[in-house]
Each structure stands twice: as C-alpha cells, then as structure tokens.
C-alpha cells in the first residue's frame, strides 16, 4: 500500500494524510443517513485509519480548530515513510489509509459525539487502529468510548496543559473541551490508576480540581516533573505502569509551549518543547497502542504552519508505534544518545 510518489500526489490534486490512499466507501443499510454517516468506510485488512474531525463546537475560548484536518493533511505530504530513529519503513509495515472526515452539524454537540463514536467503532471493529485529527478535545470522549467497547478498560496517556476533568459549572455545559477525561473516568472507560497526564501547567479554579483524578488513581506529571526527571524519566514511569494494557493516546497540542506551537486556542506558557513532545511519543514504542487523537490545532493563529508541521510529525510518530509492534523489546526501547 504505502505512500504515493510525489508526482502521483501532485498529479491528482487531492491532499490525503501522508500521501496515503483514500479509503473506499460502501453503502451500509444500518448506518444513519445524517451528514454522510450512511456511507460506512471499508476498513478491512488495514492496520491504521486516519480520520479528520472538523468540529470545534466545544471550545471555550478561541474557535477555529475545525480547520486543522485540512492543514495537517496539506503539510503531512512532506513526511517520508522511513523512520531513521526507529529503523523502520512506517507505511511499508503499517497498512494505513486516510479515512476521510467525520462530518457533523457544527451546532449539535450530542450528534457530533454520536457520529465520531460510530465512525471510530467501524475502524476498531475492522481490526484497525483509529488516529483522529481534531477539532477540539471533545472528540476524545467518543473515540475513547468506541475503543473501550472493543478493548475494555484502557490505559490513557493524556498529554495536555490542562486536566480536562472540569464540570459544567463554569461554562454551563457538561460537554466542552475541558471535560472529556472527567466523563471517561466516571464512566469507567479508563482502568483505575491508568490515567497518565503529562505536561500539566495551567492554573486551577480551586484546590479541588485534581480531586477526581486522585480518586481514580491518576498519575500527574506536570512540567515541574519533566524539568526534574526529564522526558525520558517520565516516559519510563509510564511504560512501567502501562505494561501490556491497551493504550489510548490523547494529545492536545497546547501541551507544547506556544513558542513551538502558537496555533492553538488555549495556549499556556512553559510547556513541552517540540523535541520533548516527539521524544515522548518515540519513548512509547513497544506499548500496545489501540487509538490516538491529536487535537486543538488552530491554523488561524499559526505562523508559517509551525503547529501544523508539528501535528503532522506527532501523528506520524504515533503511527510509527504500530510499525514497531512486532520488533524485539530491545529495539523498541527509547534510544539513548
């Protein structure tokens, strides 16, 4: 399968993720005929399906993340298939396609969640790993729910400046981009003690903001921990804790310092560098990744596509983890320089 050549890619004028094939679609009688949901993608015999989710109805500050899938697709064309650090040809080892966008009415949050969950369920039930590009962080909840239906309770690595365990009190809605981890914890989608939150540094509304995570045994790694132990030390702790469990990775680009990722709607100074973010994902090699989302890229606030380029690289790093799953544990371990 693999990537198209540069000339083939330029010739047809379309912009699939990483110059990958586009998924074909077939009519499904039992799918809802809303917003294109009646066309169920055929994902059989694939390892990975990348889905754009152009939805940002859950933002609380600056909207515009709905445009990210287009821009991340556009810049992802620059990435080649062979990963020199891992020593693996990613798109030779991983049968991957661009599965198109999950389209939803922008003003119906409940329907948006329903459609995301339905599409991700199609991917998981076909035996492939879903990779979502948002959109805002509300898309993580239906994605986690769909993956947990098949794989059971998950380990979740949550890379973010914010806890995302808020209630609806501040904004008057139980579902916005600051709430997905609360819902996933309360619903039992995450195994107790298996939420790992990395890059935290935002201010809290009061001292009780971390209480829900504490009750569920969440492990918090704020930027102070990364400064003290380094990103390798944090990743080592995560690897020991996750073990063989199914792992879902949810990556909010605002975890990265706005100096490296200015294109996001809720920037918080003092975050991860691009290098640390990439090293974090590479350090997860060998774990059993069953799903990933990358959210909160806001192209209108970006400069020279800096954030979109980083997002494409992080998405590539996530897919690369699948390329390594059959290699030896020694080769999977984080490389030391």
Question: What are the salient characteristics of this protein?
Answer:
single chain; 8-stranded parallel β-sheet; 337 residues; two-stranded antiparallel sheet; 11 helices; Arginase, Chain A; alpha/beta
CATH superfamily: Ureohydrolase domain
Low-pLDDT runs of 5+ residues are: 25-40, 328-337
Written as H for each helix and E for each strand, in order along the chain, the element string is HEEEHEEHEHEHEHEHEHEHEHH
Give the CA-CA distance, first to last residue.
33 Å
Strands in their spatial order, largest beta sheet: 6-3-7-12-11-8-9-10
> Roughly what fraction of the amino acids lie in strands?
15-25%
Shape, principal axes of CA atoms = globular
Q: Give the averaged pLDDT, no decimals.
A: 88
Q: How would a crystallographer describe the biggest sheet?
A: 8 strands, parallel
Q: What Rg do the Cα atoms give?
A: 18 Å
Count of alpha and pi helical runs: 11
Work out the helicity level.
Answer: 25-40%
| Class inferred from helices and paired strands | alpha/beta
CATH topology: Arginase, Chain A
